[in-house]
Amino acid sequence: MKHLITKERFRRENFKETETQYIALKSIVHNQTLSNSFRWEASLLLSKNLKRQSCVALKNRCFITGRSRGYSRFFCLSRIQIRELARNNSLPFVTKSSW
Q: How many domains does the chain have?
């Protein structure tokens, strides 16, 4: 699982570096007032250079275990880790309730 966490971190860093270029090319492609040839070149650049670095390739993972299912965006943790940390009172303002 460790390799999945490092792989995801690497993808996010690459996306941060090319995010402005990605957004600019997307806006050029969708702009109807520009010429078709200019938009076509922008779409070619978008598909060629940024295929692996798009935001679609990113996967939300728990930063402790690397688990992708049961992910909570608020904590950036999986449901299992949230439960364990809540039981140990490690999460601020969260307690595991039982009745």
A: 2
Distance CA 55, CA 93 (A): 32
- In the chain, DSSP assigns E strands to 71-72, 77-78
Residue 13 has pLDDT above 70, yes or no: yes
0.85 exceeded by the pTM? no
* pLDDT given for residue 53 in this prediction: 67
Burial environment of residue 78 by CB neighbours within 10 A (0 to 12, 13 to 18, 19 or more): buried
For residue 93, the enclosing domain spans 61-99
Same domain (yes/no): 42, 70:
no
